Amino acid sequence: MKPIAVVRRTSARHLLAAGLVTSLALATGCTKSEDDSDNKPSASQQDDAGQVVASPAAGSGPTCTIDAYGGQKLDLKGATVGFSQSEKEANPFRIAETASIKAEAKKRGIKLLTANAQSQFSKQISDVQDLIAKGANLLVIAPLNSDGWEPVLRTAAAKHIPIVTIDRKINATACKDYVSFIGSDFVEQGKRAADQMIEATGGNGEIAILLGAAGNNVTTERTKGFEDRIKEKAPGLKIVFKQTGDFAREKGQSVTENLIQSKPGITGIYAENDEMGIGAVNALKGAGKKPGDVKIVTVDGTRNAVQQIVDGWISGVIESNPRFGPLAFQTLDTFTKGDKVSQDIVIKDSSYSKSNAQSDLNKAY
Ligand code: GZL
């Protein structure tokens, strides 16, 4: 089997911060070799380097080495890395994620090929096959879905191409089908969102969930974390509505328009990403509601959403840190040198509420 590196945290408590990252607001959507010489972070984003990431070697739990996995050592410096992005870069999460990968490739002087699947899974599979055909020696993939990767895994294995997946988990076996997995702790995000919802509502009332897109672990885990926490800590809060907004602003708005028609007295809305949360705010504005009439909690940490905390429309935002560049390349570097990496390391997430939204706005992406 060939090295496929995917890294996921088992617990924030065991992670050591390593390095600082910056993100760059860029858009790309084609397969090409990147020359990032013109991609200089703006001054404010350089100042935003307060985010810290875990180090692959510092994670807890089971580890993996190239010997155990059965790949070949290679010099990352002289390699070509292919990056496959899943969703179109209208969502700031995706823009910041791609920017972080590009910035780290540039910093390490590594040639980068990129592709964007425009939120179509079949295109992502062909994108990755295309990156391999264009000569990528290693792949970084932000998977749209958790299942359906077998064709890519087979092609990469046949050519001994290590894969790192970032932000969503693929259903495969650590240190067999892949080496390590990188992502946030999405169950933890759901729990933290529930805590903010309980605080905002006083733990009583009827709440709705705008679910993320189906078919990936992010939606299932953010929902599980939230529902379990509400059940544990606030029996007075009843979840009376759940519907997917597909992680999209427009759908988040249309679903919320229907919600407030059917449940005009809704107390709070948990949106599983900022884009849907902003759509919900737009729906409430359209219905003549005032800031704070409905308590909204979202996940991602985009600048637009954190600004809505300042403006009073959103009560809290849990960050889902997209700045995977340093951790993805460090994982590949450590692994391809023959050193061990943890099978599970997760990127550190911060959060925003009324108390820090204004002061930390520049840390949002
Ligand atoms: C989380 C990522 C999610 C973001 C959404 O790691 O997969 O997908 O939270 C995005 O904004 O659509």
UniProtKB/TrEMBL annotation:
Keyword Protein biosynthesis: no
Keywords: Signal
Subcellular location: Cell envelope
Periplasmic binding protein domain mapped to chain residues: 90-330
Pfam family, one: Peripla_BP_4
Residue numbers spanned by region Disordered: 31-59
Signal peptide: 1-27
Chief localisation class: other
Superkingdom in the source lineage: Bacteria
Keyword hit for Secreted: no
Family: Belongs to the bacterial solute-binding protein 2 family.
PANTHER family named among the record's database cross-references: D-ALLOSE-BINDING PERIPLASMIC PROTEIN-RELATED, GALACTOFURANOSE-BINDING PROTEIN YTFQ
Name of protein: ABC transporter substrate-binding protein
Species assigned in the record: Streptomyces spinosisporus
